[in-house]
Structure formats: C-alpha cells, structure tokens
Design a protein that fits this description.
mainly alpha; two-stranded antiparallel ribbon; 16 helices; binds geranylgeranyl diphosphate
Length: 321
C-alpha cells in the first residue's frame, strides 16, 4: 500500500514528463506553460488511491489519472476565459498570456489528449471508465452553466447552490476515485460508496473555499480576503445571510450589495458574523466531511488500507483555518 505522499510524488514525477508535441508551438506551448504551473494534482491521486484499494496500481490507472488531470486543466483554462480571470495558481492565465482564441484551441486539444490517453486502456474496462468520464464531463458543463445563470439571478436557494457545486466541483472528485476502482474490478457497491465519499468531500471542499475567501488568513491561503464579497458572488455565506437576516441588517446587506465602497468587505463580514453565517458554514463543512467519512467507512476493504484516503480528506478539509 503506497502512502499519500508516495502517490503524490509518483504521479507528479510521471506527469512532469508528459509533453505536448513541439509543433505548432502556438497551439501546444500554452498547454506546457499551464501544466508547468503545478496544482495540487488531487484528482489523479484520488484515481490512484481508488485503484490501490482493490489491488496493485496498474499502468492503466496512471494513464487514466493523467487523462483526469488533463481534463481538469482544460476546464480551468476555459473557466478562466469565461471568468476573464488574470491569475491562476498565482501566475498569468493562458488567455491573458496568449490570447483568448489560443486559449480556446489549446484547451480543446488538451481535452482531446485526455481522450487519447483514455483510449489506450484495457478494453475490458474501457467502456465503464469512458461512460463515467463522459457523464462527469457533461455534469461539469451543467454545473458551469448553472453557476453562470446564478450570476444574473437575484436570489439562489441553498439547495440550488448545493446542486450546482455538486456538478461543477464534486462529480469529478467522486468519479476520479471510482474510475480507479473500476480499473481494479471493484464491486459495484464499493464503487458507489467511494463515489459518495468523493461527492461529499468535494462539497465540503467547496464550502470551505467559500468560507476561507471571507474568513481565511490571506497569507496562509494565498488569497485576497473578500474577493467573493466584492463580486457579490452567491456563496453559502451570502445565501445564508440573505435568508437569515431581518430588519436593519437585511436592509444594510441589500444596500451593500449595490455598492462598491472601500469598507464593503468589512461591513458584509460583520453582518455574516452577526447572523452567525460563519458558524453555520463551519457546521455545514463538518456535516459533509462526516458524511464523506461514513461512506468511506462502508467500503469493504481493510480499514488500515484506507489510511491514505483519510489523510487526503484531512489534507483537503482542514479543521482549523
Ligand atoms: C467539461 C466539456 C467541458 C467543459 C468545461 C469551463 C467548464 C466547462 C467548467 C469549469 C469547471 C471548473 C473550473 C470547476 C472548478 C473546480 C475547482 C474547485 C477548481 C480548483 O481545483 P483545485 O483547487 O485546483 O484542485 P488546482 O490548481 O490545485 O488543480
């Protein structure tokens, strides 16, 4: 059984050697650039972890893990175009550095490379892996569209937001684990428990991201605090606060949403605190984290073999912020 750091290193070392063709340079260099920026490589490692729960890690598991990471990176390149984001992983985004048309096409070819890698795996389980990969890709598109729809909506219900992040963020985390399990012929029931573990960890991860954007330590988390507040992003904190404030605070919050004042972040944060949105968000993270762990406990393999997965959950969802 490989430890979590061993798997992270082993995937990282192999993936570092992955190169796009040299020509046309204007198509492929932006992809080499983007992959060189790193990232946590969580999804491919999840695929390897799901794989090793049911046997030895195979070459096909590495191949699928690489396809998943390429798919994830492709979606980030396109997401940054849609969001007009300047920075990703602390560096210039592909569209900012190379132009939007290049970013669209380089992203497209990255997605195609992902499918080329997948196409090489054993035909015994290729259909099951491909079906899950395709369902997941479609769901990610659906999540992305819902997210865009929410931007122009006045109100978004908590259930709708949960549904959106489930699609946009969690299904790929869940499917990465399940694809690894499929490749070692895991029983269907265990595949489902692993998938549910990933789904709940993914939701907890996204809620934590919303929380840290408002309350995190900017140095520790490498982000400017209040980015979501400045953009009126409908995060859990804002949705909860709109639903749970009354009178003066409600009026203040609605007014703040229409302004761009220097003290907007401080004022909104004080409303979040006074209606206890911060405490509620932490409870919600804990709820999804513990549901995830419950699903993992139901996977029918030795508890000690699950240790790296518990460690990964711990790494993704930090209890102290
Ligand atoms: C699927 C055909 C197809 C199109 C994609 C653009 C798009 C449609 C979807 C966007 C999906 C997206 C960007 C979701 C956000 C997921 C997320 C939480 C990203 C950050 O993940 P980390 O923290 O990033 O793992 P690193 O940098 O570590 O890889």
């Amino acid at each position: 059984m490989n430890s979590l750091p061993e798997l992270m290193k082993s995937f990282g070392d192999r993936f570092k050697t992955f190169r796009f063709p040299e020509s046309p340079a204007n198509l492929y260099q932006p992809n080499d650039y983007f992959l060189s920026l790193g990232g946590k490589r969580v999804r491919p490692v999840l695929c390897l972890l799901g794989n090793q729960l049911f046997g030895t890690i195979s070459k096909d598991a590495y191949q699928t893990a690489a396809a998943i990471e390429l798919f994830h990176n492709f979606s980030l390149i396109h997401d940054d175009i849609m969001d007009k984001a300047d920075l990703r992983r602390g560096k210039e985004t592909v569209h900012k550095k190379f132009g939007s048309n290049t970013a669209i096409l380089s992203g497209d070819v990255m997605l195609i490379r992902a499918y080329e890698l997948l196409a090489t795996i054993n035909p015994a389980y290729l259909p099951a892996v491909l079906t899950l990969f395709n369902t997941t890709a479609r769901e990610v598109c659906e999540g992305q569209q819902l997210d865009m729809d929410f931007e122009s909506r006045e109100t978004v219900a908590m259930e709708e937001y949960l549904h959106m992040i489930g699609l946009k963020t969690s299904v790929l985390i869940a499917a990465s684990l399940e694809m690894g399990a499929i490749i070692n012929n895991a029983p269907a029931v265990d595949r489902q428990h692993l998938y549910n573990f990933g789904l709940n960890i993914g939701i907890a991860f996204q809620i934590q991201d919303d929380y840290l954007d408002a309350f995190g330590d900017p140095v520790k988390f490498g982000k400017t605090v209040g980015g979501d507040i400045k953009q009126n992003k409908k995060t859990f904190l804002l949705i909860y606060s709109l639903e749970h404030t009354e009178g003066n605070d409600k009026e203040r919050l609605n007014k703040l949403l229409q302004t761009d004042n220097d003290d907007k972040v401080t004022q909104v944060l004080s409303i979040y605190k006074s209606c206890k949105a911060d405490l509620w968000t932490k409870e919600l993270i804990e709820k999804y984290r513990s549901s995830a762990l419950e699903s993992l406990s139901m996977v029918n393999v030795k508890e000690e073999d699950k240790k790296p997965l518990y460690e990964l959950a711990e790494y993704l969802i930090q209890r102290e912020s």
